[in-house]
UniProtKB/TrEMBL annotation:
Keyword set, alphabetical order: Cell membrane, Membrane, Transmembrane, Transmembrane helix, Transport
Native species: Eisenbergiella tayi
SUPFAM superfamilies named among the record's database cross-references: MetI-like
Main location per the UniProt record: membrane
Protein name: Glutathione transport system permease protein GsiD
GO biological process: transmembrane transport
Length: 289
């Protein structure tokens, strides 16, 4: 079966994007690091030498060694194992919260940008109210209201990130709103749902995709902040921010307790930001190689 010209063009653009991304060494490095972190989290029971709850009260506050690569905490738990298991919570919170906030924000922004008028005004004014409060404070307020925990942390992060995706989606939709292919679809009486999701969003998805990558990094950092103040994942579950909180009282004498979780957060956020920058450059049609 022969491919249509549109399908060939889409494949060509996809390959051009991949080639541009592959030329960006920092973006490739960020992608490799994130993939390794995800794989380590998925196969944590195989990779981690100890369980995240496993205590050894005879070897508390031990420094890095061959037996414990990153040392042990105040309860004798292996820090390396807890970081690997903690990746399950930290990465899951970041990915899941961004996924649902992106879906909600894209739907709201597309509706506002496509229909305009009162619908646009109502949606954007509600989002203005949400954005009047800094995202971290809004997440803290929601988590404090719902209570600590994995699920509530995801809900808090999801709600706090919806306005950003909605505004990006609305702006992108407005850019393609008056183009010929949109008018052609309207002239043949195509349904609004089909026009928005078949014609408008696919041509406005590049900046949204880049923002989603950056938002995962922000979500990981925010979830660590919530866990640090006791509003995120609760002990004995392993989570990078919670590990920082548990080890802050030992930072002077046993700095390894907070150094390794902190370095892991920095590495994850930095890698996602490098990948996001690379995607932005690769998806920019104005760049020519």
């Amino acid at each position: 079966m022969k491919k249509t010209k549109t399908e060939i063009n889409k494949e060509s653009m996809f390959m051009v994007t991949i080639q541009r991304l592959a030329k960006n060494k920092l973006a490739v490095a960020g992608l490799i690091i994130i993939v390794l972190m995800v794989l380590a989290a998925v196969f944590a029971p195989i990779i981690a030498p100890y369980g995240y709850e496993e205590q050894d009260l005879y070897n508390t506050l031990q420094g890095p060694s061959l037996e414990h690569l990153f040392g042990t905490d105040d309860l004798g738990r292996d820090i390396f194992s807890r970081i690997i298991y903690g990746g399950r919570n930290s990465l899951s919170i970041g990915l899941i919260s961004v996924f649902f906030s992106a879906l909600s924000g894209i739907a709201l922004g597309a509706a506002a940008g496509y229909y305009g008028g009162k619908i646009d005004m109502i949606i954007m004014r509600v989002l203005d109210v949400l954005q009047a409060m800094p995202a971290i404070l809004l997440a803290i307020a929601i988590s404090a209201t719902l209570g600590p925990g994995f699920t509530n942390c995801i809900i808090a992060l999801c709600i706090s990130q919806i306005p950003g995706f909605a505004r990006m989606s609305r702006a992108s939709c407005l850019n393609v709103q008056g183009m010929e292919f949109i008018e052609a679809a309207s002239s043949i009486n195509a349904k609004d749902f089909r026009i928005i999701f078949k014609h408008v969003l696919p041509n406005a998805i590049s900046p949204i995709f880049v923002q989603a990558t950056m938002s995962v990094a922000t979500a990981i950092l925010t979830s660590a902040s919530l866990s640090f103040i006791g509003l995120g994942v609760q002990p004995p579950q392993a989570e990078w921010g919670a590990m920082l909180s548990a080890g802050r009282n030992y930072i002077r004498g046993y700095s390894h307790i907070v150094m390794f979780p902190g370095m892991t957060i920095v590495l994850a956020v930095l890698s996602l930001n490098m990948l996001g920058d690379g995607l932005r450059d690769a998806l920019d049609p104005r760049l020519k190689n």
